[in-house]
Amino acid sequence: MASRGCILAVFAIFFISRVLCSHRAPVAPMTPYLMLCQPHMRCGDKFYDPLQHCCYDDAVVPLARTQRCGKCTFRVCFEQCCPWTFMVKLINQNCDSAPTSDDRLCRNVS
């Protein structure tokens, strides 16, 4: 049977980690290792903070990254370029769907 000291130590560690996570402890890592309670996502074999980066074309990129679509610029973390129509749509919309008020038509540069 485990000693009473070991049980108390495990309980204390569990309790402290729950308290830190419930208050969203600071997550500014000084090393490349993930810290406890830090929100993270995976892109290929790399982890990233979704508040600062996104996964685009299997690469971790900053949220502000832009790219050209015809004569427009779109934000790769939030929008997509539908190349056959040069329409910029929100990332979760299908390129074949009917145009919406959120879409931008970006004719090809001649």
TrEMBL record:
One molecular function GO term is: signaling receptor binding
Q: Does the keyword Signal apply?
A: yes
Please name the InterPro entries in this protein's record. Answer: IGFL
Give the primary localization class: secreted
Q: Would the keyword rRNA-binding be found if you checked this record's keyword annotation?
A: no
An example GO CC term for this entry is: extracellular space
This protein's superkingdom?
A: Eukaryota
Keywords, alphabetical = Secreted, Signal
Q: Where is the signal peptide?
A: 1-21
Task: Report the locations given in the UniProt record.
Answer: Secreted
Q: Which family does it belong to?
A: Belongs to the IGFL family.
Name the chain's protein: IGF like family member 1
Q: Which gene encodes it?
A: IGFL1
